[in-house]
Amino acid sequence: MTTTKGTYPQEFDYVRTLPDKYWWYIREWNKVSRKWIATDVFVPYSRWNDPGWPFGEGKTKTYPAPMKHTYLPKSGNNAHIVSSSWLEYTKIINHSLGFLSLLVIDGGWINKASNKEYPTGHQIPYPPPYNPKVEGITSIENYHKVEERHNGSTRIAAFDYKQSPPDPTIVNPTTHPYLFNHFTSIDAEGNIGHAPQGYNTYIPILGKDGNAWIVDEQLEHGAIPPKEEPMEIKRAWGVDISKWNGNYNDDGIDEGFPKLSFVILKAWDGAYDRTSDTVSTFKEQYASVEPIPHKGGYGWYQTEQSPITQADLVLFIADKGLFDFMPVDYESYLNEINEKTANDLVKFVEHFRSRSPLKVPIYTNGWILTMLRAWLGTWLDTVDIWFAGGNIYNTPLISPIADTVIPDIPETFTFWQFSADKNLVADELDFSIWEDESLDVNVFNGTEEELAVYLNKHGTTPPPEEDRFSEGWNSALDNMNTHSALIRKV
């Protein structure tokens, strides 16, 4: 396990939290000195042998390794009733399953002695019926900023639990790692891991009046935090955009963000063609993303309209040669999600792919995907899924995630939209949109080379631009049944 990845300013002094022999080594009664002393023999903590303990032998085989801090040197318990705002802040900065693991009684942060309403191992629901009492802890192998030293103790940088939490997009474990407990565990061999259930979790250092003291014998002073390691990127990354994102500038997205292998543009709404010359913004936007190797044209499927009419429009757009694949967005916005419309979606997909070699992934979220599986059965295995959701969906991402992370769902996905609406990495610096706008970020479940194979691209040349955007296409479109009342997604 590595320690918290993030930015540690070099001008600060740091301490590293050390394993506490009181917990992790045999303590024997010395009859001569008449006190307990620690030996050098590491043994499993006795609780591991308790079959009722949720993290014991036969389960994780690890024990959370918390280290208490106090609001005075060597005294003053920092345990407190955590506020709803700090709970929500902790939820935002964590993986969803990791946050839930923090809510387990006797997992380290929330202990049974202070929360007797719940049995050991019980996970407090979120939001909780009452705000639990949490421990003032860091854990071993963390690096913290030194604020002062006094009376054999060191005060580390901390938040005041009586104050409101900061903006998580500005202050978080990546930007300020020394303000957080990267919660660790230890196993029978002394290996350091993630606590309390193997998830990578973070707890803000919360102290009374912002004070968090740790005795010096538990600290290594003058510690040098590790440098942030480059993120390993294996999968192909991309973005999906609509008219609201404006034109691609390519002026900042490569700074700390993977290069884009694909872009998915909004191409149609129901029976409305957004690639038409009558849509003034599309041609310019399309030209701006020309350097991105692979392009998809997605559209919003409208359940009140004919699936065949919509499929014919998508075939018409596909024939322009603008796109390498044509995802269809089946969502609940202004739509009816039921068994009938699900079977209409099947008609749409089958009509399209019987007439075009292009892939047509279905874009949808978790609950709709569950319903589609119930309604459509094994047919769903014949199509590709562009999944919106998962463990870190729609959270304020401030740096790219390691692309080994995948959605915590049973379905296999082809594309995964893991950040929508609140992504602050690929932001308005890269598209001509206004301040504080965001961008949907996606990964393909494979490398860029595998994406090219998936798209069946063999160096073919698309039609000339003047053909793809000519008035002839518009005349053909005018002959289609597009004069009906259309609902346009805005």
UniProtKB/TrEMBL annotation:
InterPro entries: GH, Glyco_hydro_25. Transmembrane segments: none annotated. GO terms for biological process: cell wall macromolecule catabolic process; peptidoglycan catabolic process. One of its GO terms (molecular function) is lysozyme activity. Belongs to the glycosyl hydrolase 25 family. This is Uncharacterized protein.
